[in-house]
Batch of 2 targets.
Target 1
Amino acid sequence: MRIALAQIISGRELADNLALLEDYARRAKEGGAELVVFPEATMRAFGNSLLDIAEPLDGPWASRVREIAQELGIVIVAGMFTPGVSSDGSGNGKVRNTLIATGPGVEANYDKIHLFDAFGFAESDTVDAGTDPVTFDAGGLTFGLATCYDVRFPALFTANADRGAEVNIVSASWGAGPGKAEQWKLLARARAIDTTTFVLACGQGDPASQGIEPKGAAPTGVGHSVVVSPLGAVLEELDAGPGLLFAELDAAVVEDARVKLPVLANRRDF
């Protein structure tokens, strides 16, 4: 299966971000991809208000993403924001950091479980945490979903593998800082080895690469999206700026890795 990672830099305007998504999805399709991954916060970049633009999965933004995926015949995974919900089912003044996966034969969504309360940023002030792992099937492969800070928590990736995932997708808007790009790549490689899965780690491009000043402590991306093999090798990588990369995924590679390195079969729970 041929896939693509779309390393964009989203902004404040939802319509502009949709146009960017459509452009990259079209380019991915023209390049032969059956699935294209976009970053966390594709709907609106961090550093902007989120509650006023959060919408349900049948709202206009998600519906347009769904239309683009169907028109092009490609699976799209992209980060958006949906309304938070309290225990009684009413709104609670927060949002959920949601990944939508949609396209021919695919309709899934994942709410980010591990919220980024670190490095001076408190995502939990405005975002509700999700609770459940999510996988979906496409192109003869099973994909698990994760978002940004989730990549620091191996148990989610193992849970996805237990549900059949041969590929783990991580959409991110990674926070900048000393050593952060190196940590991003290290963690993507570690999660691949932990689970003998391909890891598709797609982050927002670094606004500084385009001369855009950062907005406070908001994590707005460092680039360096990577495709990692089930044995931890970086197969493809982008630099800090916007870009589109392609890679080929083969379930046989995962099967071979799991014969050579049966960490899932050998592990113990404590």
Note: The radius of gyration is 17 Å.
Target 2
Amino acid sequence: MTWRCTGIRWNDGRPAIGWCAEGRGERSSLLDHGQRLAFAARGERHCLGVRRAGKRTPCPTAATVPGRAGNAQCPECARLDRSFSVAADTNAADPRTYRVYLAWFGPGLVKVGITAEERGPARLLEQGAVTWTWLGRGPLMATRRTEELLRAALGVPDRIAYARKRAVRGRLPAAADRAREVAELHARAAALPGWPESLERLVCETVDHAGPFGLDGLPAPARVITGMVPGGAVVGRLAGAAGPDLHLADGLVVDTRLLAGWELVAPAEGGATAVPVAELPPLAAPGEQDGLF
């Protein structure tokens, strides 16, 4: 029986590494800031199949997946997964209540999105949102129309490249400044005409993830893993976690999406990090953030 990593999971606001094994379901290992991490990849990386309504259907062909792929699925499973995706507008009949949110990731990095109400703030943790607030709640299509309205009127996207979020995470303004920017955007959104009548508007209540992410003790990101290889090892001390990223004390960032699909085992005694990495550019000085992008 092989337990394969499924990437990071956020359990009640705490990061955890997820695992699955065919016929044994899923489990997770909670992580604590400051703990030592040490693991190595064994064998080949395999497709994790499709997960729907909390249950995972294994890949019928047990296909292998490239080590540098950001998604641990074969093309067939990825297509099936997308056929149920709200984000891809392929499940418009979903009867659940949804919420519209405003998420702030760094200076100038703000997006509007939707998530199922039953998931609570999990989506914001998964995306690495530093500060955020709800905007409204209602049926799926009403929240989708609101999302489009606010994106156009406020000039904010519904997606932000993850490398951009990571690049600014090591130097952020104070929590009060983050909250003020989000509150100002919420006020602008609330003043716009054209909100669907079936959407219940929600007052601004900003939430900050500095605690769950460990932002106060986070080193500037210096290197990021670009893929795992058989025998590749990661050894270090966990400084914090945000979205799918594990930030180690030496500045290495481990994107757990690249761990998904691998069997992870203890590395050789006295082993050190030995995986493909890319150097990250130094952070811009205050006032030069626009130059990053």
Note: The CA atoms of residues 84 and 91 lie 6 Å apart.
